[in-house]
Write a structure and sequence with these properties.
heterodimer; A: 294 residues; mainly alpha; two-stranded antiparallel sheet; 73% helix; 1% strand; elongated; B: 564 residues; alpha+beta; D-Maltodextrin-Binding Protein, domain 2; Dipeptide-binding Protein, domain 3; five-stranded mixed β-sheet; four-stranded antiparallel β-sheet; 13 helices; 19 strands; 21% helix; 17% strand; globular
Chain lengths: 294, 564
């Protein structure tokens, strides 16, 4: 399977970029220390105050000390903010995806294996979650959450709570088709309790579709975090996130284009890489797709 | 006054040829402007905030407002001149600025001849009195609180709907004379008489809360259509003429106001000037970084900008009843630690705000005196701050800073983050407490719920030291029920007595010197930490003529610009 994946050029490119981004996020303090910068210190001397606080120098004030220039209006080091921003963006997206998969698969299997009434009830719950206008609800939820709660965690939970419907529906469908298989029926006849059936017989069959779906959920959740931060209900300052940077950049896009381009480009690259990875996984893991390809 | 409401801004203009320096380097592209031949065309006004209530009783303006002043003439109004000259009131409906007697406790005004409402009815002293009485009605809240405080025996008056007998301390011996009896000497009365509450309202046409749908005009225009917060269209009032009003030129035949626009969009539209936008001005969207980059000296855009200053201060308010801010050493240390450059940058850069070490903004009319008791330099003196804290035996100080949760009023997360970083340099940990902008004033304005440290702004209701200092430092103005502005909760009988003594002065220059001295004296106590004062840089459209900043409001006057 790995060999098949490595033959997919898109997957390889995506995996390399994605790994790079994850590494950046994990080693953010180290990278910032390497650059000799942190993400909170203001550098007033690097700004042209008379022109509204745009960075002095080419491309947003890029220099040997500030590798990506500085933030307009504050003079905070952009490199440090970008690498720390990766932590929030990726961390929230990964956290939300894990929560969505846990919740979705749990509910999906319960619906698929449970009786008629359990299935009907849970399916309606899934429908409800899928039909909620998630952005609107997320904004209102985040607005009422107390400020001293850890913001990235809250973001991940809110995004996950509003986004597990898809995983659940796929899991339920797969479970319903798997439970008709002979080996599942055999296990049930042999008197295996439902939880063992779920763990030993159903879950392995779910791995491929859920893994593919999760790889697609990750960029979706990243966009959700960026969107919420862009709308001002994401992480609180001075914590940086890419979405938040894009939000402040909207007032600067003519005066200091570099400030829009950097977080925008990073977000784009990361999303692209995850989509490429997801595509590669789908091609290799999805038997129908494989047949078509051959 | 209250936090300044952006819609109601005002401005003034004089003949282009007489322009002084004053409020800034005003630019003239219209040497040939003549108020006698300027009539014609449609002026477009593009604004962020709209007028919520177009009722003269409910508007809270400085000098009568920019747009409201086109509909509502008042006893006095701002004199619409640039620079220091523009900080003085001028007679409007009245023949002069008023005659004080009984030690400035009685003010008498005479109405000029020929003044009429938009329906041709003559304006009488009774109409002016009725307009003021309406503003006391609980059904029509929103105006400035001064009249209730100043007029003798009016503190509990509930408006003409509930108490049709009216206020006895306003007398109208004949149709042309109106006399105000005050409970205490108030030398600033001619300044207060510029407020829209002094606009005449015909009792016969008053339909209470619905009056704002079509207020009866006494000015050069009347309402054609009005949608609250969104749009306002004004057309000529045929019963008005320059013979009965020398202050407003009323050049455009029609004025169309669109509100609810984004600041960046407004400025971009004015820069581009496509179609009707060539005739556009704004009264509340200060230029952003995009335009500042294009505003180099001698550039095309630089000829289409007014620069002025509205007296306004952004500051950190200490609650001296709460630890650790009850300790003067803590307040002094933070005053040393502040980095005003990063606050200026957070608010849009040195073109639109300036650093302040004094509570009074740098306008002569307010009595500004330079002082810097706790020199922090441009970027803060963290070492000095640490030293002061160490001497007081305080280390590892941790405090909370309350601010609004958006930056629209200039006291939001951007400024708070800059302050947090500056205090960090002095070893003080700041936790940010973002409060919803809609409830921010309710929480900070109630001593029971007021945080220890909060961001605040203060603007002048009129260009005088009194309305700037009294609500903030007069101990008798601590309002426990809510709506309090004395955030330091400071009450010193000596200061209160000095305030009363200055209020009794009718010579603005003498009063200004004493206000300035009082500000300098209060500054030593570090009751507030002044951060910045406002500068106003506004763009206007290609076809707009005779636009310049007045000394009162710091922006162009819609009543004087021309688009012909």
């Amino acid at each position: 399977m790995i060999r098949a994946l490595l033959r997919d050029r898109g997957f390889v490119v995506g995996a390399v970029i994605a790994t790079g981004m994850v590494l950046v996020a994990v080693t953010a303090p180290l990278l910032a220390a390497l650059a000799g910068q942190d993400y909170t210190t203001y550098h007033d001397t690097l700004l042209d105050s008379a022109r509204g606080g745009v960075p002095i120098g080419a491309f947003g004030g890029v220099s040997g000390e500030h590798w990506l220039g500085v933030e307009p209006g504050t003079g905070r080091d952009l490199f440090a903010r970008v690498v720390y921003g990766a932590r929030v963006s990726l961390g929230v997206a990964v956290g939300a995806t894990i929560l969505e998969v846990l919740l979705g698969v749990g509910v999906g299997i319960a619906a698929g294996l449970g009786g008629r009434w359990a299935d009907a009830g849970l399916s309606r719950v899934i429908d409800l979650v899928l039909s909620i206008p998630s952005l609107v609800l997320a904004i209102s939820l985040l607005a009422i959450v107390p400020q001293d709660w850890p913001r990235p965690l809250i973001l991940a939970v809110v995004i996950a709570l509003l986004g597990w419907g898809g995983t659940a529906r796929i899991s339920r469908g797969e479970t319903l088709s798997l439970r008709t298989r002979d080996y599942v029926a055999a296990a049930q006849v042999a008197g295996a309790p439902w939880w063992r059936v779920a763990r030993r017989e159903i879950l392995p069959g779910l791995t491929a579709p859920i893994l593919t779906y999760a790889a697609l959920l990750l960029p979706t959740n990243m966009v959700a975090e960026a969107g919420l931060s862009f709308l001002g209900v994401g992480v609180r300052p001075p914590t940086p996130s890419w979405g938040q940077m894009l939000s402040t950049a909207t007032t600067w896009f003519r005066a200091d284009p570099a400030y829009v381009i950097i977080p925008g480009l990073l977000l784009f690259l990361t999303l692209l890489s995850f989509v490429l990875v997801a595509n590669g996984l789908r091609r290799v893991l999805d038997p129908r797709q494989r047949e078509i390809l051959r | 006054m209250r936090r300044f409401v952006p819609i109601v801004l005002t401005a003034t203009v004089l003949l282009a040829g007489c322009q002084g320096g004053g409020g800034g380097d005003t630019t003239t592209s219209n040497a040939a402007f003549d108020p006698a031949t300027c009539q014609g065309g449609t002026l477009t006004v593009l604004n962020q905030g709209g007028i919520t209530h177009l009722d003269p009783a409910r508007l809270y303006t400085s000098g009568g407002g920019n747009l409201p002043s086109l509909l509502f003439r008042t006893l006095t109004t701002r004199n619409r001149q640039p620079g220091d000259a523009g900080t003085k009131p001028a007679p409007d409906l009245a023949t002069d600025l008023g005659t004080p007697s009984d030690g400035a406790k009685t003010w008498t005004y005479h109405l000029r001849d020929g003044i009429q409402f938009e329906d041709g009815t003559p304006i009488t002293a009774a109409d002016v009195k009725y307009g003021i009485e309406r503003s006391f009605a609980p059904e029509l809240p929103g105006g400035a609180p001064y009249l209730r405080d100043w007029l003798a025996g009016a503190a509990d008056y509930q408006g003409p709907y509930k108490q049709p007998d009216g206020i006895t301390s306003i007398e109208t011996p004949d149709d042309k004379t109106i006399v105000f009896k005050l409970s205490k000497p108030e030398g600033d009365f001619p300044f207060l008489a510029t407020a829209t509450q002094f606009a005449p309202v015909p009792k016969a046409k008053d339909n209470g809360v619905d009056y704002e749908k079509h207020p009866i005009s006494s000015g050069p225009y009347q309402v054609e259509s009005y949608e609250p917060k969104k749009s306002l269209v004004l057309v000529r009032n045929t019963h008005w003429s320059t013979k009965i009003d020398e202050l407003r030129y009323a050049c455009p035949d029609r004025i169309e106001v669109t509100s609810g626009l984004d600041s960046a969009v407004i400025n971009q539209r004015i820069v581009t000037g496509a179609g009707q936008d060539a005739n556009a001005v704004t009264t509340d969207a200060v230029v952003g970084p995009e335009q500042l980059a294009q505003l180099g000296t001698g550039s095309e855009l630089d000829k289409r900008v007014t620069r002025g200053e509205f007296p306004s201060t952004t500051y950190l308010a200490f609650n001296t009843k709460k630890a650790p801010f009850d300790n003067p050493k803590v307040r002094e240390a933070l005053s040393y630690a502040i980095n005003r450059t990063s606050v200026v940058n957070a608010l849009g850069g040195s073109a639109v705000v300036g650093p302040s070490t004094t509570f009074l903004p740098p306008q002569k009319a307010l009595g500004y005196q330079q002082y810097d008791w706790f020199p922090a330099g441009d970027t803060g003196a963290p070492d000095k701050a640490k030293q002061v804290l160490a001497e007081a035996g305080l280390s590892n100080l941790s405090i909370e800073l309350a601010h609004e949760n958006d930056d629209s009023e200039g006291i939001g997360p951007k400024v708070a983050s800059a302050i947090q970083e500056a205090f960090k340099q002095a070893g003080v940990t700041v936790k940010l407490n973002a409060i919803d902008t809609g409830t921010y004033r309710d929480i900070t304005g109630k001593p029971a719920t007021q945080p220890g440290l909060s961001l605040a702004t203060w603007g002048a209701d009129w260009p005088s030291g009194g309305p700037f200092l009294i609500p903030i430092f007069d101990g008798r103005q601590i309002i426990t029920a809510g709506g309090n502005f004395n955030l330091a909760q400071y009450n010193d009988p000596e200061v209160n007595a000095e305030i009363d003594a200055i209020n009794a002065l009718t010579d603005p220059a003498a009063a200004a010197a004493r206000w300035g001295a009082l500000d300098a004296k209060l500054g030593k106590l570090a009751l507030v930490l002044p951060l910045t004062h406002e500068k106003d840089v506004y763009l206007y459209g290609k076809n707009v003529k005779n636009a310049y900043a007045d000394g009162w409001r710091g922006q162009l006057d819609v009543g004087r610009v021309s688009v012909k």
